[in-house]
């Protein structure tokens, strides 16, 4: 048995005003909202999309673009002028009043905008309130509400009254209440827009966590692209009644369908949206640990890079820098394993760039990206990271280029260290005598840890 989509909107139109049918005819022929103003107010024009079970589908657009009108058509609150809505395979457009009530009770519900709590009920009874309305018995609804309160970190405040909680806590209770309601699909219209930024951020994170655990389908409306990008598995961007792009956050960010979307995208906090995997470069500078110090040096020289990733049994062991390798060659050491910088775990391919940035700040070598099995799947040099965050093409290489013979005289050692100076890893003008090298390595390592 195949599961039907949670929601399917097929060529939805909603025109308010004197002559909606006439307006739809002209809109189908390509007229804009402004073109048909004489016939009516075209709130939604030819909107088609599918929402899969378990997805967070975000509808994003400026005020007046038609978002709320789309949402009200999804649960049958507004009849479309043309087009169809199906909820879990069942037509909402053709449903009788009775069937519609059934759909709203079981399948699709609207979340109140401000999560207002009832002041005379305890936190627990507030969280259970949606279930009470649905006729769920007292013990069962309290048990389910308790479970959700635990999930939002308020399990120990179940008996408190709303006015004993902070604003952020009250919002979380409201969210818990919304999610305890039994319906599979939740419609949320600008649910977080009135919150102050810190609480809003916290609520976004909570929503994602709860949604993952509870597996609800959510249609979330916002005019804030950052919020859309953070929450959405997919985002439909609306403008003047039409959906102008429908895609994943990454698709919208990296390949905006038109100038309108591109303008929105300019302001987005890219670090929260892009993952390590989306910006990494293939790992070219790698060497098996068995190739030893000389093997590592050869790779760095051939590829003209300042560090190399060391691999053992296909797994990423860590990175070694040119300085460490050159030093080892000079000292006659051959074992590569002892040079690997440890204590600097790689990032996972699905980690957001915010995590990568933290790592990159700490580390002079490109950040390694690994998969679930610990295999090296890519690296992110600092310039690539900056380019991804700023959406500008990279113009420089991150690592100092070395070109040293396999036997390293002291003079070359000095030169190499001076190149390293330019990265800011070693205080300028202090890398002269080999006797001082130890101190420099030390301070460089400390600097990198800061
Ligand atoms: N009941 C209505 N009567 C007339 N025009 C409406 C009505 N509801 C919405 N509109 C118009 O439809 C457009 C889209 O509104 P809406 O869906 O509320 O946009 P959004 O939620 O994106 O801000 C707006 O221009 C609005 O003025
Ligand atoms: Mg609205």
TrEMBL record:
One GO CC term, this protein: membrane
EC numbers on record: 3.6.3.32
InterPro entries to which the protein is assigned, alphabetical: AAA+_ATPase, ABC_osmolyte_uptake_ATP-bind, ABC_transporter-like_ATP-bd, ABC_transporter-like_CS, CBS_dom, CBS_dom_sf, Gly-betaine_transp_ATP-bd, P-loop_NTPase
- The annotated regions of Basic and acidic residues compositional bias extend over 437-450
Residue span(s) of domain ABC transporter:
7-265
Q: What is this protein called?
A: Glycine betaine transport ATP-binding protein OpuAA
Q: Which family does it belong to?
A: Belongs to the ABC transporter superfamily.
What's a single GO BP term from this record? Answer: amino acid transport
Region of interest called Disordered, as start-end residue ranges on this chain: 430-450
Q: Does the keyword Transport apply?
A: yes
Return one GO MF term: ATP binding
Q: Which Gene3D superfamilies match?
A: CBS-domain, P-loop containing nucleotide triphosphate hydrolases
| Domain spans labelled CBS | 280-336
Gene that this polypeptide is encoded by: opuAA
Record's keyword terms, sorted: Amino-acid transport, ATP-binding, CBS domain, Hydrolase, Nucleotide-binding, Transport
Q: State the organism's lineage.
A: Bacteria, Bacillati, Actinomycetota, Actinomycetes, Micrococcales
């Amino acid at each position: 048995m195949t599961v039907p989509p949670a929601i399917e909107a097929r060529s939805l139109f909603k025109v308010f005003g004197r002559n909606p049918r006439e307006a739809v005819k002209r809109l189908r022929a390509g007229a804009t909202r402004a073109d048909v103003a004489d016939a009516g107010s075209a709130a939604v024009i030819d909107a088609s999309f599918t929402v899969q079970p378990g997805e967070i589908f975000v509808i994003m657009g400026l005020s007046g673009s038609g978002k709320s009108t789309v949402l009200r058509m999804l649960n049958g609150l507004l009849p479309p002028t043309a087009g169809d809505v199906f909820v879990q395979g069942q037509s909402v457009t053709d449903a009788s009043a009775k069937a519609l009530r059934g759909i709203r009770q079981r399948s699709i519900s609207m979340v109140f905008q401000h999560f207002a709590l009832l002041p005379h009920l305890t936190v627990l009874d507030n969280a259970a309130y949606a279930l009470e309305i649905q006729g769920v018995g007292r013990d069962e609804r309290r048990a389910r509400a308790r479970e959700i309160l635990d999930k939002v970190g308020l399990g120990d405040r179940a008996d408190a009254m709303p006015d004993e909680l902070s604003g952020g806590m009250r919002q979380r209770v409201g969210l818990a209440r919304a999610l305890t309601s039994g319906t599979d699909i939740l419609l949320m219209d600008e649910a977080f827009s009135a919150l102050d930024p810190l609480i809003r951020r916290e609520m976004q994170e909570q929503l994602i966590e709860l949604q993952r655990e509870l597996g609800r389908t959510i249609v979330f409306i916002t005019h804030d692209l950052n919020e859309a990008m953070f929450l959405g598995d997919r985002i439909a961007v609306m403008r003047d009644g039409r959906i102008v792009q429908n895609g994943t956050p990454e698709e919208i960010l990296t390949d905006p369908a038109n100038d309108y979307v591109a303008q929105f995208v300019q302001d987005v906090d890219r670090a929260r949206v892009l993952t390590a995997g989306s910006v990494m470069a293939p790992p070219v500078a790698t060497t098996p640990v068995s190739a030893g110090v000389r093997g590592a040096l050869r790779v760095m020289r051939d590829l003209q890079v300042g560090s190399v990733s060391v691999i053992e049994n296909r797994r990423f062991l860590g990175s070694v820098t040119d300085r460490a390798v050159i030093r080892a060659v000079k000292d006659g050491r051959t074992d590569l394993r002892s040079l690997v910088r440890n204590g600097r775990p790689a990032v996972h391919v699905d980690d957001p760039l915010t995590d990568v940035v933290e790592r990159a700040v700490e580390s002079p070598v490109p950040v390694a990206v690994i998969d679930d099995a610990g295999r090296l799947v890519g690296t992110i040099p600092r310039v690539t990271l900056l380019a991804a965050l700023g959406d500008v093409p990279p113009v420089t290489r991150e690592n100092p280029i070395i070109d040293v013979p396999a036997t390293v005289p002291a003079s070359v050692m000095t030169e190499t260290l001076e190149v390293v100076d330019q990265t800011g890893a070693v205080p300028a003008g202090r890398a002269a005598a080999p006797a001082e090298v130890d101190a420099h390595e030390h301070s460089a390592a400390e600097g990198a840890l800061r």
